[in-house]
Write a structure and sequence with these properties.
about 70% helix, about 425 residues, 16 helices, single chain, globular, three-stranded antiparallel sheet, 3 strands, mainly alpha
């Protein structure tokens, strides 16, 4: 890592530094936008419930009811739905997914339109839910339009980061929003654990508790990095490739991550459980609100059980969408490849599906633990709700940071290779 950073500041990587500066400048615009409130509104003082996830991913923008209150969540929801529709549910989308770069470009365009439509619907629902029935239709439409424009701007800003900066723009915007809340979280944790109005012993004990909190927090970060980078390598041999000096067939590996689905299952599970809460905010029905509070919030036993089941379901669902054992077995057989000890075709598909199922159990369990840590932490401590350990946000930050660093390292290595080759 230190070697990579040292190479970054050499004169030969000036263009790469410019890309980093552009990325940081674009993210600063996003951070500034979080504090710009929608005209005619005020901060939300009521509990956000399941919408706390959207607020966290947006750096507190929803609590501020800023122009970026919706963030890029409508686009993420649209992306997930479009991926589902490509599974031969809508033949047109399935055909586009098989047309290579042209098809992907068309799907991306459609996804953005769907995301903007979702943003307008969510913006109108939020305006109606949080502003109350005192407003009129035109006021709701005005707020929904402003929030939709904020989401559209963030999508454009994300595209600019992807093209002119470093890393995936949309992912970096989400990461920046989460990181923006971390300083305040540590300040709240320090204020909640250290009581300066007590005796020296009480203050010392509070400082020790705070240091222990910081150590546990970073230990969880290290654990997330370890799991995110862990993978199962499946050996693959190609009989039609040239043999080695010992006469064995050329061999390669297919790496499968333990957590192939990433953070998508948690986001999708949280989004589904958030729907009843949004409906309860809109219709203001006392009976329905009590049902949501008692059975459909993850702070209750029933709600948490549903939350866990949804995470496992979407972990399996998304993993098998990403890897597709049947297509992999077919392509492997067509290219003359095979897994040692496994017959090509149907047996390869079953073998790969079995491995994926076992790995997904570990990955989904990991996601449940990370997503459940803030819930358990809030139950056993009296710290403010802004202070938490683990959680979806931390998982996103670590994942995006790892991917961005790998892209940076790859860019530096590519430039070094080209310079070395040109000197020959």
């Amino acid at each position: 890592m230190f070697k990579t950073m040292k190479q970054l500041f050499t004169s030969t990587n000036k263009d790469l530094r410019h890309r980093i500066y552009f990325t940081l400048g674009a993210l600063m615009i996003f951070i500034l936008g979080i504090s710009i409130r929608v005209p005619g509104t005020q901060d939300l003082t009521s509990s956000l419930g399941f919408l706390e996830l959207i607020n966290t991913l947006g750096g507190g923008a929803l609590q501020n009811f800023s122009i970026f209150a919706l963030g890029v969540m409508p686009y993420i929801t649209a992306s997930i739905i479009m991926q589902l529709l490509q599974m031969d549910i809508v033949p047109y989308f399935a055909e586009l997914s098989k047309q290579g770069a042209t098809g992907r470009q068309k799907l991306n365009q459609i996804t953005r339109y769907v995301g903007i439509a979702f943003a307008f619907i969510e913006g109108y629902a939020f305006a109606f839910a949080f502003i109350g029935r005192t407003g009129d239709v035109f006021q709701y439409l005005y707020i929904a339009t402003v929030l939709t424009a904020g989401t559209a701007f963030l999508l454009w800003l994300g595209d600019q980061i992807t093209q002119k900066g470093l890393g995936n723009g949309t992912s970096l915007i989400i990461m920046a929003g989460i990181i923006a809340t971390l300083p305040q979280m540590f300040i709240d944790a320090f204020g909640g654990l250290v009581a300066f109005d007590g005796t020296v012993q009480v203050i010392t004990l509070g400082v020790i508790k705070f240091l222990l909190f910081v150590i546990i927090y970073f230990a969880i970060v290290i654990g997330i990095i370890f799991v995110q980078e862990s993978e199962r390598r499946i050996p693959i041999q190609y009989a039609n490739k040239s043999t080695s000096a010992y006469g064995a067939s050329a061999q390669s590996f297919m790496p499968i991550k333990i957590n192939t689905a990433g953070v998508i299952p948690v986001i999708f599970a949280s989004s589904l459980l958030a729907i009843p809460g949004i409906i309860a905010q809109v219709i203001k029905n006392e009976t329905f609100t009590l049902v949501v509070q008692n059975y459909l919030t993850y702070t209750t036993p029933v709600g948490f059980a549903i939350y866990v089941i949804l995470i496992f379901f979407f972990a399996y669902f998304y993993t098998f969408i990403q890897v597709k054992p049947e297509e992999f077995a077919k392509n492997l057989q067509e290219n003359g490849g095979y897994i040692p000890g496994i017959r090509p075709g149907e047996d390869t598909k079953k073998h790969l599906s079995k491995i994926l199922s076992r790995l997904t159990i570990l990955g989904a369990t990991f996601l449940v633990v990370i997503a459940g840590l803030p819930i358990l932490f809030s139950k056993i401590t009296s710290l403010p709700t802004s202070v938490s350990i683990g959680g979806t946000g931390l998982l996103i930050v670590v994942g995006v940071a790892l991917e961005t660093y790998k892209q940076l390292e790859g860019s530096i290595l590519t430039r070094s290779y080209k310079r070395g080759y040109s000197r020959r």
